[in-house]
Amino acid sequence: MQEQNFEDVIDRIIAKDPRYRRGAYYFLREALDFTQRKVAQGKKQGLRHVSGQELLAGIREFGGAQFGPMALTVLEEWGVRRGEDFGEIVFNLVASGQLSKTDKDNRDDFKDGYDFDDAFRKPFLPKAKLGLLAAKPGSPS
């Protein structure tokens, strides 16, 4: 069986499902590698499969480190606005043979992971701005 070129696979995925831009697929692949290394760090078992929730946590950390205060803007430009979007990208890659899954893995693993504004914007706001947001009536605490 001939190994598929990742770029060609992404072209085929986007032709079928144009919701997400190319960068989102490359970012997810890098975030998955980051997450697997982080989970394996300090353990002798090496790399292992990660759950959807573990991947979302890794995406949060990796995205903040890669893009800083621009993370939310970059993700939105790629069509990614919530955890479920990452689940769709993962399962597009699974369907194309680029990623594998276990019988326990499903799209619901990516639901209710975190609010993107809280994850990718608020960590970069000045402390004074955070205090003002918390003081506004109807603002989440």
Write down the overall mean pLDDT.
90
Poorly predicted regions: none
- Count of individual helical segments: 7
What coarse outline follows from CA principal-axis ratios? globular
Overall number of structural domains: 1
Keywords:
141 residues, mainly alpha, globular
Describe the structure.
This protein is mainly alpha-helical and 141 residues long. It has one domain (6-135). The protein is 57% helix and 0% strand. It contains seven helices and no strands. The chain has helices at 6-16, 22-40, 52-67, 71-77, 83-95, 116-120, 127-135. The longest helix is centred in the N-terminal third of the chain and has 19 residues, at 22-40. The mean pLDDT is 90.
Question: Secondary structure elements and their pairing?
Answer:
Layout lengths: L5 H11 L5 H19 L11 H16 L3 H7 L5 H13 L20 H5 L6 H9 L6
Helix pairs in contact: 2-3
Describe the structure in brief.
This protein is an all-alpha fold and 141 residues long.
